[in-house]
């Protein structure tokens, strides 16, 4: 019996040792400070056998300051210091971070990260690339990645581009152009009616690692001789059409005005018909039950017609009486 109790105690001790040792919470592991596009993110792994209610607190400092409070009582395994409104981050600053685990009122020891200098160690993301074909040339337009703080051209004044391009069917014969400062940049040694693909990276003097490469973008060249007259032809067609519409509007302005705004007029014969008296006769034919005619009486009645006529832009009420 005592052996079973002893084994149970050893098992319980082994399970709890990973999280709490001598009354203290085990610290996080694999603590590292990283930067992507000039953000400042502290990451870590939980201690082995961590409790489900484990929380973390973080702090940061520069090479010339003491640690300041970062995030407190968070459950995630990372935090971005650039999101702290009270923290001023310099693009050229050197930073450290640290984190500790907490369970209730107990906390682990602080675990400090590596240090990084933002402009030297940040990972620069991929630029965005767009292509415009014009004859047998392709214009390459490059949009720098967005930084968490500042802008790429403010941090890296002398940044340049590396452009790699190749025929779509021949990627093994790719060509490279380095240290390009122009943006946009024109590729002009291309074959007509050929599909080319382009990829771009950013180089900086302070950061030894180039940016992540852009996505591959492809565009087809056209015939250099035909390319120049196409825009001119389209412009000419639109100009001629516009001039023709103006001439038609001026020459036929009266006809167009009458069609769009017609004048209502009553025909003359209709006026005369309405003004002429008319007789109305009603004949009733009564028959007996056996079908023989009893009486044929021609009845007359008077009928008064009230008519409102629109004549020459004015209304006129007409009354015609009929009697027989």
From TrEMBL:
Domain Fibronectin type-III: 27-121, 123-225
Matching InterPro entries: FN3_dom (IPR003961), Interferon/interleukin_rcp_dom (IPR015373), Type-II_Cytokine-TF_Rcpt (IPR050650)
Signal peptide: 1-18
Keyword terms: Membrane, Receptor, Signal, Transmembrane, Transmembrane helix
Transmembrane segments: 229-252
GO cellular component: plasma membrane
Protein name, entry field: Interleukin-10 receptor subunit beta-like
Lineage, uppermost ranks: Eukaryota, Metazoa, Chordata, Craniata, Vertebrata
